[in-house]
Amino acid sequence: MMAAGRIPAVAVSALLWLSCTAEKAGNSLIFASTADATTLDPHNTTDSQSDQVIWMVYNALIRYDEDMRFVPDLATRWSVAEDDVTWTFELREGVRFHDGTAFDAQAVKANFDRVLDPEQGHNRRDLFAPIERVEVADDFTVRIVTRYPFGAFEPMMAHVSAAIVNPTVARARGKSFGYSAEATSGTGPYKVVRWRKDLELVLERNEDYFGENGKLETIVYRPITEAASRVIALESGDVDVITHVPPPDLRRLEENPDIAIIKTLSIGAQQFRFHCKREPFRDPRIRQAISHAIDRRAIIDNLMAGMVAPSTGPLTPRIRGRAELGEIPHDPEKAKALLAEAGLPDGFRTKITTTPRYNMGVEIAQAVAAQLAKVGIESEIEVLEWGTIRQYWGGLLPEDCPLEIFIMGAGASSADADWGLRPIFATQERNENNYGYYSNAEFDEVIHEAMRTVDPSERNALYRRAQEIVYLEDPGAVWLFDNYHVVAARSNVAELTTSPLGLVTFERASISSE
After folding, report:
1. Phi, psi torsion values for 46, nearest 5 degrees
2. For residue 487, how far is the Cα from the chain centroid?
3. Residue (of 62, 96, 157, 68) closest to 503 by Cα position
4. How far apart (Å, rounded) are the C-alpha atoms in residues 238 and 224?
5. How far is Cα of residue 477 from the mean position of the Cα atoms in its chain?
6. What are phi and psi of 63, to 5 degrees?
7. Is 100 exposed, middle or buried (0-12, 13-18, 19+ CB in 10 A)?
8. 131, 144 contact by CB (below 8 A)
């Protein structure tokens, strides 16, 4: 029975999107995302909700196509000199930013100078740290010089944070750039015309785009945080596309002739991390014991059927440099033996922190806790909202972080092993990106040698060794499964683009009358 004066959270969310449906008319598409974009400044973005909007508004010099090959974008061609550190880009001419400002080599230099400037404190400065300087050769030729031969240079340049912003608007707006419709300007096929935080973000077709014009006049991003509300909105036709389809609804949606399901094996994996500076997680035998105590197949079959694939390494098959290391076997007896070796034959008590922001995040934590109990590890489950758990991943010292075992989704947003391993597991004093304070001296040495290696076979061998360490010998996490990026759309939507990077974009999409 509903308490008087209270409306369930699902109903609240439904009311919010119903209040906005008056705009669903004509050549307009409505996309229900799981959350609002946090920023439209490419140099600060760290979440996929922002990234997929950024790719509609900006271009980079190069980018990945749907098959994860590098293709031209604002650069028409590029090459590297014999020194392996000097990269030359020839730029597209006649391109203009949304305010009419011309794009040229000076704009490219201004962008990389901006993201590398420590005074500006952009979130993605570390990604571009291998760059030593950017030189303007002429109006439409630019040279980027790295500090050393960097094997992941092209993946870095295809990253969403290499998207080129309008330097004129960025300078004028300062720290507010990317946080409102007025303070956003790129060269992309769509431009931001309205942004009401947590309600809707509206893009309008850029009629002066240098490439083929988009077919949709407007695209509306509408955050609907509750999965059930997203599904209801799609089935009723109030929205056209949703992402993060809940597993219990998958089969019903697949059988609905008005709905199309698109699955793409993504770069993302679901894992539980450890606070490696807390006892008893300092001991790798404890982390190995937990890893062997987990029955991944049971979790996949009972909670995630059809949505994921078992993890066979710390990186998914869509990531360059990934090593195939096999599934971690479910072996409770081995788990008990490892606990005994570590001096805890009777197990211990711990806390598992999760968030409903991840698909079945609470249910997965409950399953893990039940499985750990069978080897003597008793767990309290703590459920936090996304914003709260993110606060514990924000550059804290180990003594200030209360987490012990915690859920986390991870994937290399550059689709390369360097960015899939180095920021997440290389030693850091604070948990800027290495949220579990993982530290292994051999791993650090191998990963830093790998980033300076350009020969593909040598590079792959080094990354394989790094993955053996963090996955098998000194586990930095419990890897559960590799995610499929699952998108559901009304059947009258054509040519939307889904990427292994976990993004949905609409640069070629169209919509017809049902």
Report:
1. -140, 15
2. 15
3. 68
4. 12
5. 18
6. -155, 170
7. exposed
8. yes
